[in-house]
Design goal:
This protein has eleven helices and 17 strands. The chain is of the alpha/beta class and 346 residues long. Strand 14, helix 9 and strand 15 form a beta-alpha-beta unit. It comes from Streptomyces himastatinicus ATCC 53653.
Length: 346
């Protein structure tokens, strides 16, 4: 066992505070990582506030982890001390079910082990990346290419794969028209990735406040959803709409923006239930779908793609003592576009 510094929420909705946590000893197939940067994801805030479900406390959030290998187990073959690596949203899965065998560990039939607020195979609660170190099985670690700075790479471990996976699955590319709904921590990465894939990209945002940013990051068009004319002008336009928002939507209105056989794919997760008139999907053979992060192999593919195309998150680096303020700023959309914690300050 080793003791590392961390920031944890001691109770639901409580401010995060500095503490120490125990990490397991490095076993045969484990990799110990010196965490250098950890991104702040909106899901961290949902979890701290128990917006989706009850979770165990104290809670150390963080599943956008970038760092350097400091120790490897005797059976490790994929990594060596000094390698630049990342850890995303989960750190284990059953490895036996059909989905795991297909590289879809995120849909593990027995349930994957989340990077934090989960119970691992040792019966211990997992703690996330708001810490100075972590120990992870080598099969759930990915390599960060040299072309990606660790700080801008960290958010790709969630925001990057969360948007890359559905864009790849629904075949975004040359000749396709992709709309990104929401221009925030997920949305701005989706714009960059869809553009790099060769799609014609449109941002749909509540206002035109971030229009210049959207166009700079690769969008071809930018529309305000607060303007009713937007929905008339764009009727039947898109092959894919990727919704990154975590608030309830008028799904009927957005489904009408799809072409026949188009897909509205949700990666944002509202805390409230949604309602839907099924005529919205039946008329036009449209699909209302969802997508959840990505498997380990696909996450590595995403990182390699981002390195090749110069795609990284737009970040604001903060000190650990600013985490609680950063949470409030995320909730008020006061960040462009992802906070990253400098783990040296923990």
């Amino acid at each position: 066992m080793s003791t590392v510094a961390a920031y944890a929420a001691p109770a639901p909705k409580a401010p995060l505070e500095r503490t120490t946590i125990e990490r397991r000893a490095v076993s045969e197939f484990d990799v110990a990582i010196d965490i250098q940067y950890s991104g702040i994801c909106h899901s961290d805030i949902h979890q701290v506030r128990e917006g989706w479900s009850e979770v165990p406390f104290p809670l150390v959030p963080g599943h956008e982890i970038a760092g350097v290998v400091t120790e490897v187990g005797s059976g490790v073959t994929k990594y060596a001390v000094g390698d630049r690596v990342g850890v995303g949203c989960f750190v284990d899965s059953c490895r036996r079910c059909e989905n795991c065998r297909k590289g879809l560990e995120q849909y593990c039939a027995e349930g994957h082990t989340a990077t934090y607020a989960s119970t691992d195979k040792y019966g211990e609660t997992t703690y996330g990346g708001y810490a100075t170190g972590i120990v992870v099985d080598e099969n759930y670690v990915v390599r960060i290419p040299d072309a990606l700075p660790l700080d801008v790479a960290a958010p790709l471990l969630c925001a990057g794969i969360t948007t890359y996976s559905p864009l790849r699955h629904w075949k975004a590319g040359p000749g396709s028209k992709v709309a990104v709904l929401g221009m925030g921590g997920l949305g701005h990465v989706a714009v960059k990735i869809a553009h790099a894939m060769g799609a014609e990209v449109t941002v749909l945002s509540q206002s035109l406040r971030k229009r210049d940013d959207g166009l700079r990051l690769g969008a071809d068009h930018y529309y305000a959803t607060s303007d009713p004319d937007t929905f008339e002008e764009l009727d039947g336009t898109f092959d894919i709409i990727l919704s990154t928002v975590s608030a309830p939507l008028d799904f009927g209105a957005y489904l009408k923006l799809l072409k026949t056989d188009g897909a509205l794919v949700n990666v944002g997760l509202p805390e409230e239930p949604i309602s839907l008139n099924l005529f919205s999907v039946v008329m036009g053979r449209r699909t209302l779908a969802g997508s959840f992060i990505g498997g380990i192999a696909e996450t590595q593919e995403m990182l390699d793609f981002c390195a090749e195309h110069g795609v990284g998150a737009e970040i604001e680096t903060i000190r650990a003592e600013e985490i609680n303020t950063a949470f409030e700023r995320v909730l008020s959309s006061d960040v462009r576009y992802r906070f990253v914690i400098d783990a040296a300050t923990i």
